Amino acid sequence: MRWLIILAMIAGFLFGEGAEAKAIEPARIPALMASLKIPPSQNFCGEPVPMNNPDVRQRFERELLLILWNRPQVILWLKRAGRYLPHMEKLLKKNGLPDDLKYVAIAESALRPHAGSSRGAIGFWQFVRPTGRKYGLVINDRIDERRNPFASTRAAIRYFKSLHQELGSWTLAAAAYNMGEKGLLGEILAQDSMNYYDLYLPLETQHFLFRILAIKLIFSDPEKYGFSLSGKDRYPLLSFDRVQLKCGRETPIKLVAKAAKTRFKVIKDLNPEVRGHYLSKGDHELLIPKGSLTGFQKRFSNLLKAYAEDHKGRVYVVRPGDNLSTIARRHNVPVTALLIWNRISPRDPIHPGQNLIVHPGN
């Protein structure tokens, strides 16, 4: 009897009662086998993909199935695309590069500014430090432009132009982008082939272009693959005002946030290339929320003056026997705050006579 009651309750929960009951919406996810009916006329940057080659079709199908299996990931791609892809498309078009190259950023980072790899690649286009610097990115302990969608896209454009000029093919350029041009040129010479689809390359690079092609296929018709997103489902386009700042000293980012009438996190999210809590001395161009530019410079100037005055009275001179924990307890602040205010690491030693900035807690 107990089981009958439980079943009745479950049925009522699932199907409701009376005229108000509504049927559960049927699943609209297409069968995986149906998804493998890939149109034969595929191309990358206008270069045809030899779909009549059984090996090529097999590699394409593999990447498409693996991507479709992780549906939450694809949904996030589609949602993030609304935030970043229009800006990337505009830069690619302005520089005369094929629109298909935008899918490289999705394959590389899933459009995440802080994405990182075991090889030290960072950001939207997954630059390692030497390559990023070679193509104009600022990368140091204060700024890492690999995380900036505009600067990193411009660097990727310069890199792709160089690769295409050297290799004569966007397909080979994409392969070189993944494994490095020297490595690819070595394989081309060793295997005596300039055809990506005929080259035996590192497995990651063998999969890389087909991953891009599968992403392009899904993005060209998301509903066909069961992804029905309206415009409001996508994350809104990155919208902002640009502001030029002159910092005569290290300046807390929280002052920028206050001048923009927003929060620290908003400024950090709009400027993911800025590391830490402070802007270094010098000139900076930052993004601030759209509509907050009016009166910004005056507010920022006033905040800087007030900060400079307040800063003078916040210097603590380290005494013999002090350590960060005792100083933090004495001023009723967390040790983490001391580290942030003074741009030091927990591993950095302090010594008598050293000046520390301390803002007493409540």
The portion of residues forming beta strands comes to 5-15%
What name is given to the CATH topology of the largest domain? Answer: Lysozyme
Helix tally equals: 15
- Helix % is 40-55%
Silhouette: elongated
* Mean pLDDT metric: 88
Between the first and last Cα atoms, what is the distance in angstroms? 62 Å
* Helical/strand content category: mainly alpha
Strand order of the largest sheet: 1-2
What is the H/E string? HHEEHHHHHHHHEEHHEEHEHHE
What does the main sheet amount to? 2 strands, antiparallel
From the structure above, extract its key features.
single chain, 362 residues, mainly alpha, 3 domains, two-stranded antiparallel ribbon, 15 helices
